[in-house]
Specification:
single chain, 638 residues, alpha+beta, Creatine Kinase, Chain A, domain 2, CBS-domain, 2 domains, 3-stranded antiparallel sheet
């Protein structure tokens, strides 16, 4: 993202000064392109790896600072949340054994971070979205203490003017609001970089756009968020909504989100992307250091273009353009931001190899992708891949109707990628190893997303929601340590969830969230039927804002019916007349022992669970019978 700001708030004059620098940087970049200042004829690759830190119960562990102190490596850095960590590998020349070198480096760094985390009682998980991550983990107390992140949050939130709203629909539906940008911390990725020359940039960037959908379809591994089954790669929808500053406007006006696939092909130059992003997206922050890029050029030096890089870091294209300097020469890179982290280093490098090979192979196959493919089809393909993964149907070149991604990859794109890697001089054994992983994954039909979904389905009806999500997370670690790619993984089972204590420690882990509720103005007869139809003994009463206002219990209903037996069938009594007002409730984080003590002390059979005054769940005596059953079985076995 460039230089870090030193403050979270900026005066209007500071932002205007920064804009002046930004426009100067664009003019300097244009001059450098005209003068042929950029490095050409050199192909380098690089990666950024993001990871989750978890505790011994497989939940997010905000210990990034302690891990960094143990590692003391400048390549390992913080991310938005204290339970995220990132490392950046040095660039490699594209050719020879660069792919196997890349896998070795990724494996070594993940192992180094895992070792430090384990010393602190935690571990590392390679996945796009951590299954055990939940909304309570996304408070500002878990934001990394860096002015950059606080500034980003305050600037985006002020621009939006209200809470961020999320609506993602798959098999289940997620519909929530959140006050900060912290939902962005649910995403971790394996970001790959591909250096290109300025004269070939437009052609290769457009190729990267076309290749995005088939690559995303075969590397999806993030189908769950907060336990809900959403898109095969839910990160795409989540990230696009997590920093969306747009408000509802006239349907006649088009307003682009800060996270996007783009709106059109690039015609001639990298300048088009930078100019469009400056034109569309407001400056959020000011960089810490000033630089007169034009003066640097005049003095014969290569400018850092700090303002341009900084602003570029606040606009999130899925294929982003990057400016950098290597050995004193400026260069351009295409950064792929949509590949998820994990499930293993070999899977990640296989994904990268497929992408690198496609960029090289498609360039040989198609002189100009824009002449044979419509941009709208490319963007629609990307969304289809995110939603359906290997089940997506993609519109492709010279095809009158969409075709299955399986057919497209196996019959057309894998041979093209093999040829592209071979032409680039990649080691033949590496080509076979990594593209062989892609072929086996697609043929078997088991991506990371498919593994998660099938494992989750097989555990249906077993254990609690928390246990199932813990089992998935624990298995991500144990299967990764087996060094087998994801298509060879056996499914997770409920037995992988670990010790019962970690899965029943707090009421949020086992409370019922699929609730039947009534309004205080509803008819009592409705409550009678709800209890009969759904075999329940407690019905919460909430208002139109989902705030808890009362509780109807089986006993209170019986008392009412006994006292009004003669007239019960003719009366239209509202729920407000029989409900218990202001019932005792607890927050989701309440320890189980505390909940049991409250229920015993007050002689109640259930506890509504309330967060921010709104009803989110219900804990009853039946839930504790489940815990008692687990304990009894454990004792008998021992």
């Amino acid at each position: 993202m460039g230089d870090h700001p030193q403050t979270a708030r900026f005066e209007a004059s500071e932002l205007r000064t920064f804009m002046k620098q930004l426009l100067s940087d664009v003019r300097a970049l244009e001059r450098m392109l005209i003068d042929g200042s950029f490095e050409t004829g050199v192909r380098r690759i690089g990666v950024e790896q993001e990871l989750f830190l978890v505790d011994r119960d497989w939940r997010p562990a905000p210990m990034v600072q302690q891990v960094l102190e143990r590692i003391e490596d400048p390549a390992v850095v913080t991310e938005l949340a204290k339970f995220n960590i990132e490392f950046n590998l040095p660039p490699l020349t594209f050719g020879g054994t660069c792919l196997s070198t890349l896998e070795r480096q990724v494996t070594e760094y993940v192992g180094k971070i895992r070792g430090a985390a384990r010393d602190l009682g935690g571990d590392v998980v390679m996945t796009g979205i951590l299954p055990t991550l939940d909304v309570p983990h996304l408070g500002l107390e878990n934001m990394t203490e860096n002015p950059r992140y606080l500034a980003l949050n305050e600037s985006l939130t002020a621009l939006r003017g209200k809470d961020y709203e999320f609506r993602i629909k798959g098999v289940d539906e997620l519909l929530i609001s959140h006050a900060t940008v912290m939902l962005e911390a649910c995403n971790t990725s394996f970001q790959t970089h591909f250096q290109v020359g300025p004269n070939e940039f437009a052609r290769l960037y457009n190729m990267a756009q076309a290749a995005a959908a088939p690559l995303l379809a075969i590397c999806c591994n993030s189908p769950l968020l907060f336990g809900k089954r959403l898109w095969r790669e839910t990160r795409i929808a989540l990230f696009e909504q997590s920093i969306d500053t747009r408000n509802i406007r006239s349907h006649q006006r088009s307003v682009q989100p800060r996270v996007s696939f783009g709106t059109k092909w690039v015609d001639d130059s990298v300048l088009e992307i930078f100019q469009e992003d400056i034109a569309r997206f407001r400056v959020l922050m000011a960089a810490a250091e000033e630089e007169d890029a034009l003066a640097e050029l005049a003095a014969g030096r290569v400018p850092q273009l700090r303002a341009l890089c900084f602003h570029n870091g606040t606009v999130y294209r899925w294929n982003r353009v990057c400016y950098g300097i290597s050995e004193g020469k400026p260069h351009l890179r295409i950064e792929n931001r949509y590949i998820p982290s994990g499930p293993t280093p070999v899977d990640e490098v296989a994904n990268a190899a497929f992408w690198f090979g496609l960029l090289a192979g498609m360039t040989e196959e198609y002189a100009d992708i824009t002449r044979v493919m419509d941009f709208d089809d490319t963007r629609a393909n990307f969304l289809a891949a995110a939603r359906f993964g290997l089940g997506a149907q993609l519109s492709w070149i010279h095809k009158s109707s969409p075709e299955p991604v399986l057919t497209l990859v196996l019959e057309r794109l894998l041979p093209m990628a093999r040829e592209g890697l071979a032409t680039a001089g990649i080691n033949a054994d590496d080509i076979e190893r990594y593209l062989g992983v892609i072929e086996a994954r697609v043929t078997s039909g088991q991506t990371g997303a498919c593994w998660v979904i099938q494992s989750h389905a097989d555990m249906k009806g077993k254990g609690t929601k928390a246990e199932r999500l813990s089992a998935l997370t624990a298995c991500c670690v144990t299967r990764e340590l087996s060094l087998k790619p994801v298509h060879e993984w056996s499914l997770a089972t409920i037995d992988d969830a670990g010790d019962w204590r970690s899965n029943y420690a707090r009421v949020e882990q086992y409370m019922s969230t699929d609730l039947y509720t009534v309004n205080e103005g509803d008819l009592v007869d409705l409550v009678v039927n709800l209890m009969d139809w759904q075999h329940i003994r407690f019905v919460p009463v909430e208002d139109n804002e989902n705030r808890l206002v009362g509780l109807v219990t089986y006993r209170s209903l019986l008392r009412f019916l006994v006292r009004n037996l003669a007239e019960a069938h003719t009366k239209t009594v509202p729920v407000s007349e029989i409900m218990q007002m202001h019932p005792m409730s607890v927050p989701p984080s309440t320890p189980t022992l505390e909940a049991i003590a409250l229920m015993k002390q007050h002689r109640v059979g259930c506890l509504p669970v309330v967060e921010n005054e709104r009803l989110v769940g219900l804990v009853t005596e039946k839930d504790f019978m489940t815990i008692a059953g687990v304990l009894l079985e454990e004792q008998l076995r021992s």
